[in-house]
Amino acid sequence: MIAIIDYGRGNLRSVQKAFEAVGVSAIVTRDFNKIADAKALVIPGVGAFYDAMAELKKEALDEKIKDEVKKGKPIVGICLGMQVLFENGYEVKQCKGLELLKGDVLKLPQNYKIPHMGWNQLKLKGESQLLKGISEGEFVYFIHSFYAVAGESEVIKATTDYGVEVPAIVEKEHIFGLQFHPEKSGETGLKIIKNLGRLIG
Predict the structure, then answer these.
(1) pTM score
(2) How confident is the model at residue 145 (pLDDT cuts 50, 70, 90)?
(3) 55, 68, 79, 144: which one is catalytic?
(4) What is the CATH number of domain 2-200?
(5) Could you tell me the residue ranges of all domains in the chain?
(6) Distance (Å) of CA 52 to CA 61, 63, 165, 199
């Protein structure tokens, strides 16, 4: 069973349904005991980095998440959930993220339409447990105005081009991040969710 962290951001039920569609049991919760019992954690989300961290801190969910990850529990961040895995965000105003990955989250360049919304191709950057069965150039669905500038280039496993090279998939040991929405990305998204299911066991 995986725990989808309920902190009031994003369509939690659509993420839950996507995991259930590939045979992975998932609950939406903010209960510390259920988070502790889960095999893995998922942080979904739509909105601003600052607001997301404020919500996570309100009930000390940020510290609970970090404690579980330190124990080796897998975590998956989706869209805004991926961004808060990094050290700092600058949306609304500067604030600290969960600091599970090195790097900052910055605004996309102004010469492109913001938010970045729609289908873009994945450029594969290295071996990843999430990319089994995924080919160069497959399309996934993005909606975001900020992007991660990773402090460790080796964590970037796939990118997309939107005026800058946007990390689309990051992976470090048991920490995974997807800037796009796999639950809205058709067959490619389902393949990635299946791969996550295999990793979680």
Answers:
(1) 0.95
(2) very high
(3) 79
(4) 3.40.50.880
(5) 2-200
(6) 11, 14, 24, 26
